[in-house]
């Protein structure tokens, strides 16, 4: 089907742009609307702005760009919308057009994102930063602004795959860029838990690191497309590609749309969140006694890219619930404010959104929070919460019960 594009500067899909009926049912679910109470910070307001730019010739000035950039891209408005408005597509296309017109993505952000695919450099730089933290050379305010863990790893655990590649793998584990540098322990846990089901798991080679999710968020579509082509080469064969970062998983599942070719669509169909993959193998997961279950109650925080984008948040409950007592949040999966680089770009709004989330978590009385996205876990940890990936909790229980080495 041929997409009819608007003729204004944003060049949006016209069918998507006119789909909104302005009912406002999405407003209570929008974190930026809740934080500001302003229509311009709501999904409906942003769509009205896009229409005014595209159909009525409204100037794309700093005010208009600011309204668009304040969106967290959480896509909670999509799951709330009865008309099926694809807000994420509209916002991604808008940002991409702003970048092409030099109205978005500052130079420093492009530079920082340009470093992500250089994996060895990332690991070395991250270790250096860890040393600087221990020498108290990194100001606390800068750490908080960047969402850095308080003690970055200087040395990382060596990952132990049990398959060498396409010929013998039952599954691949996607390892990524920032997450591999800052949260390698989560990959190690994911690998052990996956292998506890009897699966042979392979790791990608060079080129399979940065998925381009942050580039997509920032509207740097050409950069994201180039990275997508490299990532696809790093995962040959047809085994599932298991992802323990909700944001990366959502980006990898979007390659079919991004590259718009059959190979990318087949690749995207292989991508699955780690808990969704484990849920398909529940019978193979080791059982534990009630005395061996996780000692603390766990509040489940659904990352937006798992709940609203991948729509794969329920398997976390069936898998983690075998090993821990779970508590639900009563906010219907609202955003925590991390949003990729959002907490760096829009710290004030991100802070307000996080405060609301922390209060919601506090109401559960749980001591530990489970979250399957590195951005959310670092951002919420910065507010003093004990946030862990679901697989690290399962790994801890299985190790305690002697089911995995450790
Ligand atoms: S994506 Fe999230 S922040 Fe953006 S308009 Fe939708 S609900 Fe609001
Ligand atoms: S995006 Fe959907 S829910 Fe929100 S105002 Fe438009 S039609 Fe209504």
The overall pLDDT, averaged over residues, is 93
Radius of gyration: 21 Å
Helical percentage: 40-55%
Broad structural category: mainly alpha
Span from first to last CA? 53 Å
Q: Strand tally, please?
A: 8
Strand order of the largest sheet: 2-1-3-4
From the structure above, extract its key features.
globular, 406 residues, Rossmann fold, 3 domains, four-stranded parallel beta sheet, mainly alpha, binds iron/sulfur cluster, 6% strand, Fumarate Reductase Iron-sulfur Protein, Chain B, domain 2
Word description of this protein:
The chain is mostly helical and 406 residues long. The chain has three domains: 14-100, Alpha-helical ferredoxin (Fumarate Reductase Iron-sulfur Protein, Chain B, domain 2), CATH 1.10.1060.10; 119-279, no CATH class; 284-400, Rossmann fold (3-Layer(aba) Sandwich), CATH 3.40.50. It contains 23 helices and eight strands. The strands form two sheets. A four-stranded parallel sheet has the order 2-1-3-4, with helices on both faces. A four-stranded parallel sheet has the order 6-5-7-8. The termini are far apart. Residues 20-26, 43-44, 77, 80-81, 83, 85 line the site of one iron/sulfur cluster.
Chart the SSEs and their pairings.
Blueprint: H1 14-18, H2 31-36, H3 43-56, H4 62-69, H5 76-80, H6 87-100, H7 107-115, H8 119-134, H9 140-146, E1 171-174, H10 178-182, H11 184-196, E2 201-202, H12 213-218, H13 221-233, E3 241-243, H14 246-253, H15 255-259, H16 262-269, E4 271-273, H17 274-279, E5 298-300, H18 304-309, H19 314-320, E6 326-328, H20 342-345, H21 347-364, E7 368-370, H22 374-381, E8 387-388, H23 390-400
Parallel strand pairs: 1-2, 1-3, 3-4, 5-6, 5-7, 7-8
Bound molecules: iron/sulfur cluster (SF4) (2 copies).
């Amino acid at each position: 089907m041929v997409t009819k594009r608007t003729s204004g500067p944003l060049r949006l899909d016209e069918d998507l742009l006119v789909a909104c009926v302005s009912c406002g049912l999405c407003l209570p679910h929008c974190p930026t609307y809740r934080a500001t109470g302003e229509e311009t910070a709501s999904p409906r307001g942003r769509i009205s702005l896009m229409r005014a730019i595209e159909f009525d010739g409204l100037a794309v000035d700093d005010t208009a760009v600011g309204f668009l950039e304040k969106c967290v891209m959480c896509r909670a408005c999509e799951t709330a919308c009865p008309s099926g408005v694809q807000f994420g597509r509209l916002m991604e296309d808008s940002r991409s057009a702003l970048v092409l017109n030099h109205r978005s993505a500052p130079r420093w952000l492009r530079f920082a994102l340009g470093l992500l695919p250089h994996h060895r450099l990332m690991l070395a730089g991250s270790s250096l930063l860890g040393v600087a933290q221990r020498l108290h050379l990194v100001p606390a305010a800068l750490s908080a602004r960047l969402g850095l863990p308080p003690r970055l790893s200087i040395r990382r655990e060596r990952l132990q795959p049990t398959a060498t590649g396409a010929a013998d793998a039952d599954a691949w584990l996607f390892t990524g860029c920032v997450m591999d540098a800052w949260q390698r322990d989560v990959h190690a846990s994911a690998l052990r838990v996956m292998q506890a089901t009897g699966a042979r798991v392979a790791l990608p080679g060079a080129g399979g690191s940065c998925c381009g999710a942050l580039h997509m968020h920032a509207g740097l579509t050409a950069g994201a497309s180039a990275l997508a082509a490299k990532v696809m080469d790093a995962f040959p064969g047809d085994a599932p590609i298991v992802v323990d970062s909700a944001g990366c998983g959502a980006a990898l599942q979007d390659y079919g749309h991004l590259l718009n070719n059959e190979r990318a669509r087949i690749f995207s169909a292989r991508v699955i969140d780690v808990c969704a993959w484990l849920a398909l193998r529940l019978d193979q997961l080791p059982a534990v006694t009630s005395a061996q279950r996780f000692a603390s109650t766990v509040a489940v925080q659904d990352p937006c890219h798992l709940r609203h984008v991948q729509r794969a948040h329920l398997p976390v409950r069936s898998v983690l619930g075998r090993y821990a007592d779970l508590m639900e949040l009563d906010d219907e999966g609202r955003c925590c404010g991390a949003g990729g680089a959002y907490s760096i770009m829009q710290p004030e709004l991100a802070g307000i959104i996080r405060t609301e989330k922390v209060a919601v978590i506090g109401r559960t009385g749980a001591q530990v929070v489970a979250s399957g996205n590195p951005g959310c876990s670092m951002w919420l940890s910065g507010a003093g919460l004990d946030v862990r990936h679901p697989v690290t909790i399962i790994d801890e229980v299985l190790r305690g019960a002697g089911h995995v080495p450790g």
